[in-house]
Design brief:
Mean pLDDT: 84
Radius of gyration: 19 Å
Number of strands: 8
Order of helices and strands: EEHEEHHEHHEEEHHHHHH
Shape: globular
Distance between the termini: 25 Å
Oligomer: single chain
Strand order of the largest sheet: 1-2-5-8
Number of helices: 11
Structural class: alpha/beta
């Protein structure tokens, strides 16, 4: 999450919805100095992923911040829930189990999918911090039937959202290369060296050089398709069944936003609301 008090706007970072890419463009406006960027211990809630904090939890821990979401122009990106599930699985396995899905066999990966679904079925509405990437998207924009975050954009309209935020801030904001990409490497042996080199260059190389090297190297060492697609995660029948049931409200919201964004005169102030 990012709050900008001078320009009265907020960006709610829904997990696996282009949030890292957006934050990179607007971090300079953060009035909270990165407070809502990473997991932390909270005295009343335990370990919380503050970067991805659902509104019900925000209301309990930081009611004054929730009020700002109501008062300010508040933005979020909404993603197709089936695509998002595959990306959430990849990120969770990497962050919390320290394994890359592209290193796993299909059997191992499918076992991980079923295990994760079982965990989510038994999780409360406020998921544990290590399940934060799977939290329902509506939990970040609605609270008790009220739409709190009112400037919602599908993934295909991230550029327009950045333009709107830039208009509020008085500076042009252009899109940039997508971060946290779901890469499918041509060889398992390339996975860890590639990520290690990328992390080193991100920290130490000039941004332009880093971007140029990635544009040159990625076509040589990765497939065109995402890892999620090549590994068949979203082709599994149990994944379809689970996503249709568990993320039904997310699917309705995403579908309404896609239909809205297809209108040539679509305006954020005239966005639909999912029932």
């Amino acid at each position: 999450m990012l709050i900008c008090d001078p320009h009265r706007f907020a960006f709610v970072h829904i997990p696996k919805c282009a949030g890292t890419t957006v934050r990179a463009r607007i971090r300079r406006f953060d009035s909270c100095d990165g407070f809502f960027e990473r997991p932390k211990e909270h005295p009343g809630l335990g370990r919380v992923d503050f970067a991805h904090i659902p509104l019900r939890m925000l209301a309990r821990a930081f009611p004054e911040v929730l009020q700002k979401l109501r008062d300010y122009n508040s933005f979020a990106v909404i993603r197709d829930p089936l695509d998002r599930f595959g990306s959430s699985l990849r990120q969770t396995l990497h962050f919390y189990e320290h394994v890359y899905p592209t290193e796993m066999s299909r059997t191992e990966l499918h076992d991980a999918v079923r295990r994760m679904i079982d965990r989510l079925e038994g999780a409360p509405d406020w998921a544990r911090h290590d399940l934060a990437f799977f939290q329902r998207q509506v939990d970040f924009v609605d609270l008790d039937g009220e739409r709190i975050v009112d400037r919602l954009f599908p993934m295909t309209r991230v550029g327009q959202m950045l333009e709107d935020i830039g208009h509020l801030a008085g500076v042009p904001l252009e899109g940039e290369e997508k971060r946290n990409r779901d890469l499918s490497f041509r060889s398992r042996a390339l996975v860890r060296p590639a990520y290690a080199i990328n992390a080193f260059l991100w920290r130490h190389a000039p941004a332009g050089l880093h971007a140029s090297l990635k544009r040159f190297a990625l076509p040589l060492i990765t497939h065109r398709d995402s890892a999620t697609k090549r590994l068949g995660i979203t082709d599994l029948a149990e994944v379809h069944d689970f996503v249709n049931r568990y993320y039904s409200e997310d699917a309705a919201l995403h579908a309404s936003l896609v239909a809205w964004s297809a209108q040539p005169t679509a305006s954020p102030r005239e966005q639909p609301r999912a029932d």
